[in-house]
Amino acid sequence: MAKVKITDLVEEITTDFLKENGLELYHTEFLKEGRDWFLRVYIDKQFDEDADEEEYVSTEDCEKVSRFLSGELDRLDPIEQNYYLEVSSPGMDRPLLKERDFVRYAGRLVDISLYKAVDGKKNFQGTLVGLVNDKIVIKDEENIEMEFDRAQVVKTRLAVVF
User: Taking 70 as the threshold, does the pLDDT of residue 157 lie above it?
Assistant: First the structure.
């Protein structure tokens, strides 16, 4: 088998299976932590903009994907070292990583963390307007629009409000 990036392979292996099960791949990472390697696969329910309520990933969904992916990775054997496979939901405070995430969650409250402070602050919260010309645009509680260059943003996450 030709050398292939593991995260790309996971996407290739899972796309049809996830679609058949009403799921989609949210994010994949293959990284070393201490002595151990982890293949983390985050799945989500397929986005349906016409749905009245957002559906959430169940533990059964994670288990089903884990069993399928584990079997396929055992069959293909693309990873030389020992690793732990983890399949989960991206969570309520999910990071927004791809352009489609900024479209999907427009209108939702987000938390933004910056590398460098702006006006003495590194953390901002506001309603997501979207991603415009590689700038993350939010409106604060006074409806004032703020823009942040994507390259200056450490992380954009959905805010969790109780």
Answer: yes
